[in-house]
Amino acid sequence: MTSVASIFTFLTKRRGGLLTVIGLIFVLTxxxxxxxxxxxxxSNAVNILEQSTPLxxxxxxxxxVIITGGIDLSIGSMVSLASVLLSGLTAGDPVMMYVAIVTIxxxxxxxxxxxxxxxxxxxxxxxxxxxxxxxxxxxITLLYTQTPIGKMPKGFDELAYGRxxxxxxxxxxxxxxxxxxxxxxxxxxxGRYIYATGDDAVGAQLMGLPRRKVLFVxxxxxxxxxxxxxxxxxxxxxxxxxxxxxxxxxxxITPVVVGGTLLSGGRGGVIGTLMGVYLVSLLNNLxxxxxxxxxxxxxxxxxxxxxxxxxxxxxxxKV
Amino acid sequence: MLKKVLNFALVAGLAATSVxxxxxxxxxxxxxxxxxxxxxxxxxxSTIMDTxxxxxxxxxxxxxSNASISNSWRVGMLASIQQAAHxxxxxxKQMIIxxxxxxxxxxxxxxxxxxxRGVDLLIVSAATAEALDAIVTRAYEAGIPVVLVxxxxxxxxxxxxxxxxxxxxxxxxxxxxxxxxxxKGNIVMLPGMAGVSVAVNRIAAANEVFANYPDIKxxxxxxxxxxxxxxxxxxxxxxQKYGTDINGVWNDHGLQGxxxxxxxxxxxxxxxxxxxxxxxxxxVKLAVQNKEPAFNYDYPPAMGGxxxxxxxxxxxxxxxxxxxxxxxxxxxxxxDETTSVKADKWIEDYARLDKPNDLIxxxxxxxxxxxxxxxxxxx
Lengths: 319, 379
Description:
The complex is a heterodimer of chains A (319) and B (379).
Chain A lengths: L1 H11 L3 H20 L6 H26 L7 H16 L3 H28 L4 H19 L13 H4 L1 E2 L2 E2 H19 L1 H11 L1 H6 L4 H27 L10 H4 L1 H6 L11 H20 L4 H25 L1
Antiparallel strand pairs in A: 1-2
Helix pairs in contact in A: 1-2, 1-15, 2-14, 3-8, 3-11, 3-14, 4-5, 4-6, 4-11, 5-6, 5-11, 8-9, 9-11, 14-15
Chain B lengths: L1 H26 L9 H4 L7 E2 L10 E7 L5 H16 L4 E8 L4 H13 L4 E4 L8 H9 L4 E4 L10 E4 L2 H15 L4 E6 L6 H14 L5 E6 L6 H15 L5 E4 L2 H13 L8 E3 L3 H9 L4 E4 L5 H13 L4 E2 L1 E3 L4 E3 L12 E2 H4 L29
Parallel strand pairs in B: 2-3, 2-4, 4-5, 5-6, 6-13, 7-8, 7-9, 10-11, 14-15
Antiparallel strand pairs in B: 1-12, 11-14
Helix pairs in contact in B: 3-11, 6-7, 8-9, 9-10
């Protein structure tokens, strides 16, 4: 095991993390093409991109929060609440749809700001704060509805299944928001403060960096991304459902750590997360092609998280 | 004289024999094997689907997207599908089964993956009707024949839906209970979960019947989450509240029914009131052991296997009904048939006294045991 870990460490040294993930994607694709003649087709590639949209958007928000050294465990419940409000308020009416979209985006941002505020002013670790808000949001969701609710105007599912230049609409949107966020993190001062806050919170504050503002932005963005993800999810599923986001709390963390963002904050980036999302989606697709039961998919995902975290922790210690 | 006596003896003997035969026939009701009566008795025309466009030579690749195996009924249905894949292995090249763990988003991805794998036929048991609608519609419109089983989608964009009727359960069980009580008495209703279609439909149908009888009074209705433990707890509370004023116990399923019987036995009741059961061995077994008049009408997990067989019919180009109702046996305890509701089987023969209470009946697999079931099929 030590030798395996040290090989990983060698491969992931410095910026090698991203290369490792891309390498894994390549190896898995090659393996898939060998075991099934239907795997390497254009339609399956598009299929994987299409499936990964909601996860990618949720993980993007989670990445920013984790870079600040925090975590958002309310994200899954936020997705559920936003999804039932979106289709519930819309109820098939195209005008109400815009009202509903604005409502959930504002609500998502607000919940993020509350998460940040509670951890700053109550001095409670974000893990506990967001665990609490997550439970509260799930409760509100279930009080609102216990069954799938409402419906979207005709043609809304094009958002999930439509194509732009042969690519899924959602995938194009995903790439655009990821690139914009990456540029923001590297080029805009506030973006760089996010890293500084995560790297050394006390130091950042002593240097006069706006730590509170950074946290409000990161958590607010994360909540808003949960709402955006719910829009794509509702397009895919036809209606909001009270448990639809449940799995995102954990699965949104997997691509972040796989992509090389450290749970301790300060290091990493969103492009790594995007590659992590594709790796996870590819893996689930491949496991379906291998006719392996869902229960193995859960085990594999769990193993990936643990291995990824252990590899990067090792990495940081040595740097 | 002697001849007369002999003749008399002969006639008497014959009569006795025929009486015994009549009893023997009574005792050997083996169940109903004909076409679904819900279809035979339907007063509206069935929609028949032309499937010639799907006709192709085998062996076939079949994809089954399952919502989950999160309760023993669903485990039974999966077993029934695997058994059918085994029985028809000569026509099936590959049977790909995915499980969505009750997550609709995952099930949509599963269906997409099955389409990518180029399945000749798609079988889907939807996690929710709304969530699977868009993707199943797309598969169907892309020319893949779709068989839905147990749980459907909201639109009509599929080839056939295999099911059994909740309304028939509600009507028959309530009618039997009313007649068993002679049109007069107090009933407690123990349905499963508020808002779930099975419970909603069965309650509505039963209430339609009860409403026709002014002397039938529904004392109380309490949800039981389809749990034997909760059923027992709820029934114990009702016994505290109403005592022997309870003349009948209506359940929408056998899961809580078994718990309700346990509660009555523990309360020291000896002359147990009529009860309704479905699917679960525990309910009918306890009814037999405690000599309680009972009615049972299953929602058979064998519909999984039927989905495979109907799917193969579609790939052979045979016409199939758009809604395919399964044949279900009415089972009643001996001597408890009523004017409107006759037995196809006796519960005494149907209940498995030698098997555990949590066994799900009607999987169509002889001696089905979920702990040991395993069958080879092309994967």
